Amino acid sequence: MKLSTEALLAQLAREDRGDDAVLAAARDVFLEFGIRRSRMGDIAERASMSPATLYRRYAGKEELATAVLANAITSLLTDLDSTVSKDGPADEQLSNAIVRVLLRVRDAPLLTRLLETDPELVLPLITVRGETLMMLGTNFITGHLRRLMADGLIAELDPAPVAEVLTRFVHSLFLTRASSLPLDDEKATRRMVRAIVRRLVPPT
C-alpha cells in the first residue's frame, strides 16, 4: 500500500468535508490497530454505515488513510492559525507560531502511533515524498510572514524561501527527536527559535 503525495494533495483539494464521521471512525481504528491491521468493515461499523457505502466514498484503505492524514494535518494547522497571538514583536510572534507547530506535531497522537505501527508506510510520506507536508508548513509560515510585512513589522522580503527554511528546521526536529537542543524546555526552545528567526527575518 502506498500513501502517495498525489492522493494526499487530491484529498486536501476536496471541497466536500462532510465525511467527519467517517474520518473520525477511521482515525480511531488506525490509532487502535495501525493502518495495515485495520479493516474497512470495522471502520464502516464505527461510522454507522455499510461497507458498500464506505467503498463508494473511498476506493480502499489507502485512500481513506490518506484522507485521515490530510484531515489531521489541515485541522492542526487551522487550529494553530486561529490561536497564534497577533500581538508583540514580529520575531516573538513568528517564533511562538513555529514552536507551537513543533510541539503539536511532535505530540500528535495519530502521527506518533502510525510511526510506531506502520513506519514503512508513513515514513516515505514524510521524508522522500514529504513535499506535501513541506508545502503545508511553508504555506503556514508564509502566511504569517506576509501578515507581518503588511503590518509593517518586518522588512520586505521573499517569504517563501524563508518559510521553507523554517519549515525544514521543524521537520528535522520532528523526525529526529534525540537532540542536544533544549527541546524539553519550552521557554528555552522559544529563545532558540527566536534567535534563528532574528537571523532570517529582518525587522523594519
Please provide a written account of the structure.
The chain has 204 residues and is an all-alpha fold. The protein has a single domain, classed as Tetracycline Repressor, domain 2. It is built from 11 helices and no strands. The chain has helices spanning 5-12, 20-33, 40-46, 51-57, 61-83, 90-106, 109-117, 119-126, 131-150, 159-175, 186-200. Helix 2 crosses helix 3, helix 5 packs antiparallel against helix 6 (90-106) and helix 6 packs parallel to helix 10 (159-175).
Helix content estimate:
over 70%
The low-pLDDT segments are none
Counted up, domains total 1
What is the H-and-E element order?
HHHHHHHHHHH
CATH architecture: Orthogonal Bundle
Separation of the first and last Cα atoms: 50 Å
What CATH calls the topology is: Tetracycline Repressor, domain 2
What percent of residues are in strands? under 5%
The tally of helices reads 11
Query: Which oligomeric form is depicted?
Result: single chain
Judging from the principal axes of the Cα atoms, what is the shape? Answer: elongated
- The CATH superfamily is known as Tetracycline Repressor, domain 2
Q: On the 0-100 scale, what is the average pLDDT?
A: 86
Q: What is the CATH C-level name? A: Mainly Alpha
Which class of secondary structure composition applies to the elements? mainly alpha
Cα-atom radius of gyration:
19 Å
